[in-house]
Specification:
Largest sheet of chain A: none
Number of domains of chain B: 2
Radius of gyration of chain B: 25 Å
Shape of chain A: flat
Distance between the termini of chain A: 12 Å
CATH class of the largest domain in chain B: Alpha Beta
Largest sheet of chain B: 7 strands, mixed
Strand content of chain B: 15-25%
Structural class of chain A: mainly alpha
CATH architecture of the largest domain in chain A: Orthogonal Bundle
Oligomer: heterodimer
CATH superfamily of the largest domain in chain B: Periplasmic binding protein-like II
CATH architecture of the largest domain in chain B: 3-Layer(aba) Sandwich
Radius of gyration of chain A: 25 Å
Helix content of chain B: 25-40%
CATH superfamily of the largest domain in chain A: MetI-like
Order of helices and strands of chain A: HHHHHHHHHHHHH
Distance between the termini of chain B: 53 Å
Strand content of chain A: under 5%
Amino acid sequence: MSTPKSIAVAVLNKLGAAVLVVWLTATVVFLALRASGDPLEAILGGPGSQASPEAVAQARADYGLDQPFFMQYLSQLWRVATLQFGDSYARKQPVADLLAANVPPTLVLATLAFVLAWVLALAATLAASTARGRLGRAIRSALTGIETVSSVMPQFFLGAVLILVFASQLQWLPATGGASGGARALILPVITLAVPIAGYLAHVLHGPLTEADTAPFATTARSRGASESRVLLRHTLRHAALPAISLSGWAYGSLLSGAVVVEVLFARQGLGRLLLEATTVRDMPVVIGSITIVALLYVVVLIVTDIVERIVDPRGTARRELASSGSDASTEVVA
Amino acid sequence: MRIKPLLPLGLIASAALVLTACSTGGTDAEAPETTEGGTLVYATGDAEPSCLDPHVGGNYPQALISTQYLEPLVGRDASGTITPWLATEWETSEDGLTWDFTLKEGVTFTDGTPLDAAAIKANVEHLQDPETQSSTGYLAVQKVAEVEVVDDTHARFHMSAPDSALLESMSQQWTAIQSPAGIERGMEANCQAPIGTGPFVVDEWVPQDHVTLVRNEDYQTPGPENDHDGGAFVDAIEWRFIPDAATRNAALVSGEVNIVDNPLPADIVAAEAGDEISHIDAPRPGAVNRIELNSNQAPFNDSKVREAFIRAANPDAGIDTLFQGTAPRSHSPLSSIEPLGYSDESLFAYDLDEAAKLLDEAGWTEGADGVREKDGEKLTVRFPVSTNQSTATEQSLFQQIQANVAEVGFDVQLEPLDLSSWYGALAAHEYEAVSAPYTKVGPDVLRILYHSASLVPAPSGYFANLAQLNDPELDALLDEASATLDADTRAGIYEEAQQRILSTFTVLPLYDQQNHFLTQGVDGVTTLGTVATPTFVNAKLTA
């Protein structure tokens, strides 16, 4: 059984890993940014910048760029550890303010896309599994096709087509997520983000579901007189959903990074766009702040996925616990 | 099974194409009814400014937006003549070392601070203060030693050397005048909402999304483009940041926004063909878009090799097709809107045979792979391209030029780089060819780009003389032009300087720095004669 204690232990393990992930991320980002250019461009205004020597010296001192390399690294680590990211070089604003403004829109976008992706994937899989006969075969092959296309569809292309059709031509929905756009402005970006992930999830759901349908436990359930829908909802789907749930952590993470494309395309405020713009000008405090937050969010998502997995399938937990206590892990636990 | 998956994709794409094809009909409109009030929505494709005060840094996106709330000391009309603005008149001493400016009376900034000589002094000092981290504005007032407050409406500029470009410099948005009380608040506050005398006031900035500008109810200082008494007609401007050009156009077509900048050539052509969308073509002043050849290292330290490159480049066809007629070819180092620009088409005539002959003379012989060689070295040209500053269309043009010069044996290596890496490559002199924009009012931009003083990098590593010209006679001409206040003499010197620059074959002029605007549902949009930024003081939404 999945006890609160086992969950707590798992969470602590993940948190330990989280610290490691954040430290590594901060280090790699710091080294990469420092190796690839001087952030003074960001500070001094970029293109055509021919700042006075005084201004350059002043900026160097103000931002601690005259410190030895290792000191800069340490102070950057300290900032990450205390989540005090300092001020943006380019925007002359506290990074915390920028993150506060940009994290929520991205979370809303990614979460809605995540929910839509699951709804689409479940709907497609159920349609394919429940339809019988020729119609069923037709639906299944069509879905396989759509799944394949949607999981390889580049988001910028899908987004551009949606904008062209629904904003430019039909004018049903706004092309951009401006302040005036409201909830309607979320529809196209959410679809753009969700479709490829939905394709992937459907793919992962489909196979195990077909397999489970003929598995002994399904046959047993049917022989006990369970209806088809009961077999599906109580038994086979639950079994088939596990790989997809495990993948959800990864899927959500990829939505956070996919937000870069979608936020730029639909001109939405958000973490992805902030990160992209900060990276082009080597605005180190912003880049490190954003990446740290993304890493933390990702870790949180992995923990949540783990908990959900344990709730949906206690057997897995039992197996893991048996394994960790040295017992025979192959012991079959009957559902 | 292999075909089917593509079906939905194909259907969507072809539906989109059909719908696009149907849309160009357009209604035949009578003169549209205009209304006062309302919110005008502007969508920019330029980078979002990192600071709304154009004194800090000083780039084009800042000029674009600050035109709406900050005004310069003087204006410039389409013919290049300096016109009154915040200053009603001005006068210089015979030696060019003092300038007296008379300010318009009774003007206040939107925070109530009076516009007086002390304010002008505070602004120049702000530009010169290292803590402001100014680059463009700093260069513009470099020769101003001190501003003296004669009385409330009279400011006297004491110069360290005569500066014939002073009025042009002070007409730029990067030196526009702000409330001293606003500046006093410190950089962070002033970057968020600079305070000026313009037709609009900065109300709110939501980064990555929009800036809201509201009408200045007490607008008192009509600029050169204002055609009526009083302030702007619209109540507010929502200034939005939409980086993707196709999205911007979709937003314009669907009526989400009234004005877009940086449209794609195809969208300009479509707008010209229809009735609904209007097109404003306002090339930027200063330098023309051009390719510069690094004359300070092999192979372009040989004038013959440079000439061969330029003779073989043949950019005309590419400019025509890629820009679809929206960008005329230039043969001058200066923008077509600079009255003192000098052109010489003959220097750039396409001639493959001549190019091959020049390379033969220079000792570069054809190798087995078609790339010429000399002393075991390949005729390689490193060409770093800033993907932040160069549009996709321009990058295609560079590829065509790459193919054209390959015919005579050049191996051009185009390297797309982000801004910082691009600066890095230039600072390390790891380039033989490069294209860098530079916007400034007036021909003094030649001094920034081609004077040997600009070979010395700022401590940030950037230097503006990318052709690496080091010609004492050219330096003398540029210095003389800068110190010459007589207009005719000055024009003559600048012509000579440009002839000299072009004859070095270090510069391949391409076309003006593109500045196009598409508008829908709005009337009365004009652009300033300075750095070609749009002004909405006359704009009215159409009902």
